[in-house]
Amino acid sequence: MERMAAICRRGLPLLARSSPLYGSPLRGSHSGALQPAVAIAESWNIPLVSSDMVQKPAAERGMQWIFMGCPGVGKGTYASRLAKLLGIPHISVGDLVRKELSQATPSGQKLVSLANEGKLLPDDVILDLLSKRLEKGVQLGESGFILDGFPRTQSQAGILEQVAEIDLVLNLRLPENILIMKCLGRRICSGCGNNYNLANIDVEATDGRPGIFMPPLLPPPACASKLTVRPDDTEEVVRARLRIYADESKPVEEYYRRQGKLLDFDVAGGIPETWPRLLAALKLDRATETKMAV
To answer: What DSSP line would sit under the chain, residue for residue?
Structure first.
């Protein structure tokens, strides 16, 4: 509890400045009564942005959504497409972490070891990375976001609630055997950084469950010889990550379900099959879909 309170006190000032709720009292705490966000920021001598920028009602700012889902379900793929469609930033905590892991520092190497074992990184590390990214967004004049890969635990969800009004939490779902096949098929081009998937998934419908068809996403010839595998994309590590995610995510799902913000969505195919269904589930009209296709 004390550790979480310390994380709140250290992580909230930067997070708070990016929030439409900045300046509101913290609703609840992890260890006693925490100060309002403004008081925390002032205690750190952090200059405050104009309240006009951060206290806008939902109708006057970009959407603030969270994408949840097991590793390999496609959070990044659909979050990035929707972010482009809606004109808001896609903030992938996984990308922030991978960038940090690439740093040749003692702390970076320690994090590499944790990630390769499929373990969650410490909350303070995640909060620090996210704080810096949101601060950058304030400087760039960004409005709204799709947050991908955070929160992973109920304690993280509680911290986020103190500083950002989340409008929707989309929970993407796939059967475990499909997730494993997808993760083991992932490849990254070492040249351009694009993602591909060699898995050819074609599962017939059984026991009332719909069939799932996901053709491979193959690289162009220029990338074919430069494909690399993520160190954590081994079957042992993937299974460990799925177990950890299942244990940690259920409380988070219920946290947002109680608030009426959780939307479960079953992925049943590749992008061509899933994208129109997702737009319909999110009540995004045909005109919006046409804009994305242009």
So the answer is: -HHHHHHHHHHHHHHHHTSTTTTSPPSS-SSS-PPPHHHHHHHTTPPPPPHHHHS--GGGS--EEEEEE-TTSSHHHHHHHHHHHHT--EEEHHHHHHHHHTS-SHHHHHHHHHHHTTPPPPHHHHHHHHHHHHHHHHHHT---EEEES---SHHHHHHHHHH----EEEEEE--HHHHHHHHHHEEEETTT--EEE---EEE--BTTBPPEEE--BPPPHHHHTTEE--TT-SHHHHHHHHHHHHHHHHHHHHHHHHTT-EEEEE--BSHHHHHHHHHHHTT--HHHHHHHH-
Question: How many Å apart are CA 147 and CA 92, to the nearest integer?
Answer: 6
Starting at the edge strand found earlier in the chain, the sheet holding 195-197 runs 195-197, 186-189, 227-228
pLDDT tens profile 132-187 = 888 888 788 888 899 998 898 888 898 888 878 899 999 999 988 899 999 899 99
Q: Which two tokens mark 247?
A: 């244990």
Q: How many Å from the N-terminal Cα to the C-terminal Cα in the chain?
A: 50
pLDDT digits (tens, 9 = 90+) for 50-97: 333 333 556 667 789 999 998 889 898 899 999 999 999 999 888 887
Q: What is the mean pLDDT of the chain?
A: 76
Tokens of 183: 């993760």
Residues 22-62 pLDDT 10s: 333 333 333 332 333 334 334 333 333 333 333 355 666 77
Contacts of 143 (CB under 8 A, 6+ apart): 61, 62, 88
